[in-house]
Amino acid sequence: MKRIILICLIAAICCIQLQGQAQLLGKWVIPTGNGNSPEELLVLKFMMNEPVQYAIIAIPGGLITAADQIGDGAFDSNYELDFSMLSDYLFYDDENILWNGGYGSFMPECQIITRPHYPGEYFLFHGEFSTNKNLDANLYYNHVWFENNQIQIGPETDIIVDCLDGSSIAFAITDYSGNDIRIYNASRAFTYGIGNTHSAGLRYFSLSENGVDPNSIEDVITPANSSFTEMDFDSYNLEMKVEGDGSHTIAWINQNTLSNSMVYVVADQNYKHDLDMGRIGGIEFSSLNPTILYVSCPDSGIVALNYTSGEHSVLPNSQDFGHTFLQTAPDGHIYALNDGGYILGRISMQDGSFDPDCFTVPNSYMVSTFRVFDNTNYYILPENHRRYNPLIVTVDTIPESCPGYADGSAIICVSGGTPAAPPDPEYNITCTGPGGNSIDYDYYDPATGCFHFENLTAGFYTFSITDDIGTFYE
């Protein structure tokens, strides 16, 4: 996976001018259509400092009509879509394949991640109320890969099974580019492994290229060591953030009728807040303010909750965004769907302001991933697959003193992304000169992160830069 920035240096006579292309930061896949009848998969493209762009993938009409839909996409290192998932079907090229046996209805949260250390292979996580298990709640995953350009789907593997009838399980996965990977989840009592029972609580399992180890379970809090009750762990949407010291703060909301206006946070201590603003639609941590959790509330709109003090305020212009997941997109901002399911609003993580109209779903469609409570749609947005940390590049050029003197120079400084460990240069850079020949940099300054190119002539230059994990930007 390569993080690449393409930069064009255009040189006129005796001068060099920079022309940069927009950075692609990532994509989302969102099913859209008329209610429970999705007609298209909307592929949203999030660019650096540019409006949201999109492409459309048509899907067979009438293929999926059931409620309780889920959707996501599997992206390679260049953010090309390997396959997309909509409820029981996977879509790739011009084909679709049934991946789930349809034994129950889906819980709202699902996520496709790259199998750790195996690019091109994936794990698909989802929760399900299984009709063949008395409507008990279950958390599963499947291994998905390709052989001879044909998609392969491994068997459904249990993580949590037979959680109490009518309960729900929400989960969050830590950064899966490293080695200490965890899947956090909150639920009522359940079974795991072979015949093992476990109490209600917030806990995590270890995740590796071999999948989830059911015996690696570690409790974070339970009713026995906190003031939370078993019903408090009946989670509908769960979010996680990484603190500066590497620890994890977890928040979730409840799907139970008696406590669906509650917010639960486990940080340095445990917090429980009843906002009393109706059934909460979704939550998301702010990356701008370390103690703010945004909450979508039917009676008010989007609320900025200080989860340590309980103080809260409503974001201006957000009153029509009270029934939605709130999700951080690849551009680092937080997005929400309006109550009609066809307009994306955005909470800026630069200044905290809210834009109630930054993208409209095309073709007069609406997002088709939602749940219905009290005859009202509560909309679902996908998880962000990679942590927002773009490469930042600055370029300074000095033209030739006179045509043909070959004394021009360029300094390209890089920060952000995932730098390589010393003693190697933190980033990799390649350059093509006016004649299409490769040009090496003269020296790299690790103190500034700058590559120095000297003795340049006038012409057209293209530079590409990659960091250590190699995410692609165009």
Describe what this molecule looks like in 3D:
With 474 residues, this protein is mainly beta. 0% of the residues lie in helices and 53% in strands. The strands form eleven sheets. Strands 10, 11, 12, 13 and 14 form a five-stranded antiparallel beta sheet that branches. Strands 2-1-41-38 form a four-stranded antiparallel beta sheet, with no helix packed on it. Strand 31 and strand 32 (354-360) form a beta hairpin.
Quick rundown:
The chain has no helices and 41 strands.
Q: How much strand?
A: over 45%
- Spans of at least 5 consecutive residues whose pLDDT stays below 50 are 1-14, 16-21
Assembly type: single chain
The helix content, as a percent range, equals under 10%
Q: Please state the structural category.
A: mainly beta
Number of extended strands: 41
Largest sheet: 5 strands, antiparallel
Radius of gyration: 24 Å
Bulk shape: globular
What keyword list fits this structure?
single chain, 474 residues, mainly beta, five-stranded antiparallel β-sheet, four-stranded antiparallel β-sheet, 41 strands, 0% helix, disordered N terminus
